Amino acid sequence: MLFILMLIMLYPFYYVFIASFNKGSDTLLGGIYLWPRNVTLENYKIFLEDPKWYRAFLVTVARTISGTALGLLLTSLVAYALSHRDLLFSKTYFTVIIFAMYFSGGLIPYYVVLRSIGLLNSFAVYIVPSMLNTFFLLIAISFFREIPGELKESAHIDGAGELKIFFRIILPVSTPVLATMALFMGVGQWNSWLDSAYFVQSENLRTLTFRMMEVINKSNTPLDSIAVANSASATAGVTSFSLQVTAMVISIVPIICVYPFLQKYFVHGIMLGSVKG
Questions:
Q1: What CATH number has the domain bearing residue 264?
Q2: DSSP track, the chain
Q3: Which parts of the chain span the membrane according to its record (predicted)?
């Protein structure tokens, strides 16, 4: 039963993969189940040669790397500060964090805030709002509190400051929770498209997932069938669907390549951060 369930879950991904290597106009005829019927690399060629898709891919890579790194750094710093049990007004801080995690002002107030601080239509709108994640903040606090206090006390005796303790002692022993946070933050940055749709107007700042949603929405319009037919004849059988599945493969492969390196830390980190406290 588990094997059948695995096949049911994996086959859609496999179909997208083989469809990306099949001629787009031939894929529309149906009948492709196990392997490409008309093998071609034209879909990937068109994708990589189109400056719109190529630029969107670079923007997505840039926001994923920078957003994950900065989000991990800021969330860890705040979590380390709040993990001190003798911190003044700690209950007030936790009340604000929990309230912010469960309640939000809504899309329009959020838009007004972004506009007031000058983040609209800029690359920073992808990075700054996500630099502090309240959910992972609580997990990191619980994890940091489980680190023996003797490590910090001995460092204090040797004259180390809080920042030196954080970077030289706390972070090296916090690999499980950091890897877990990095995986979730990276996937969230990679898959995000709403911020590109609502808060960005420049075509140079569009993300890969936004371009994919754009293709999906256009393919649902009645007039698109004519445009697709013209495009297919002009680009050697490449259709909007073949370009869409190609973008899916390119967007999935980096996550699949990164996940195996973080998997061994994943369960350990998420359990330690959420169960103990």
A1: 1.10.3720.10
A2: -HHHHHHHHHHHHHHHHHHHTB-HHHHTT---SSS-SSB-SHHHHHHHH-HHHHHHHHHHHHHHHHHHHHHHHHHHHHHHHHT-TT-TTHHHHHHHHHHHHH----HHHHHHHHHHTT-TTSTHHHHGGGS--HHHHHHHHHHHHTS-HHHHHHHHHTT--HHHHIIIIITTT-HHHHHHHHHHHHHHHHH--HHHHHS---GGG--HHHHHHHHHHHHTSTTHHHHHHHHHHHTTT--HHHHHHHHHHHHHHHHHHHHHHHHHHHHHHHHHHHH--
A3: 56-80, 92-111, 123-144, 165-187, 241-262
